[in-house]
Specification:
This protein is α+β, with helices and mostly antiparallel strands and 129 residues long. Strand 2 and strand 3 form a beta hairpin. Helix 1 packs parallel to helix 3. The radius of gyration is 14 Å and the shape is globular.
């Protein structure tokens, strides 16, 4: 799947201004696949991908994790993507911290980085209380 502009059709991930389309947001919310593939999807839609880093770290228990750091840069399109992650299984399982200034950090155990599963929204938009 590649990022395209809205003029490329209804299945474009971002519009001509670089903002996530409804289809792009739906792709994140309904995502089923590996954490690595989800991060690849986010990278296709992330404004200024240099604001996203993916590195291997040792956590506090000396286990290897893949640390995903997402910085919104104050850009509303990136903030939309973070908002779509907040109600997701990815966020529930791997969220490590959020910081003032738009930094959001996720830590995925290395052994789970390539394991496919449901990582999208936990509940439908109308089901949230």
């Amino acid at each position: 799947m590649s990022a395209g502009s809205a003029s490329a059709g209804d299945s474009a991930l971002v519009d001509d201004g670089g903002y996530p389309t409804e289809w792009g947001i739906a792709a994140v919310r309904g995502f089923h696949g590996s954490p690595a593939a989800l991060v690849d999807l986010l990278e296709q839609m992330w404004w200024t991908p240099t604001l996203m880093t993916v590195d291997e770290w040792l956590d506090g228990q000396l286990r290897t994790v893949v640390r995903v750091s997402l910085v919104t840069g104050g850009w509303s399109g990136n903030e939309q993507l973070i908002e779509s992650l907040v109600g997701s299984m990815f966020h529930l399982r791997f969220w490590e911290s959020s910081h003032r200034g738009g930094l959001h950090v996720y830590e995925v155990p290395k052994r789970e980085w390539e394991v496919a599963g449901p990582l999208g929204a936990i509940a439908a938009e109308g089901d949230r209380g």
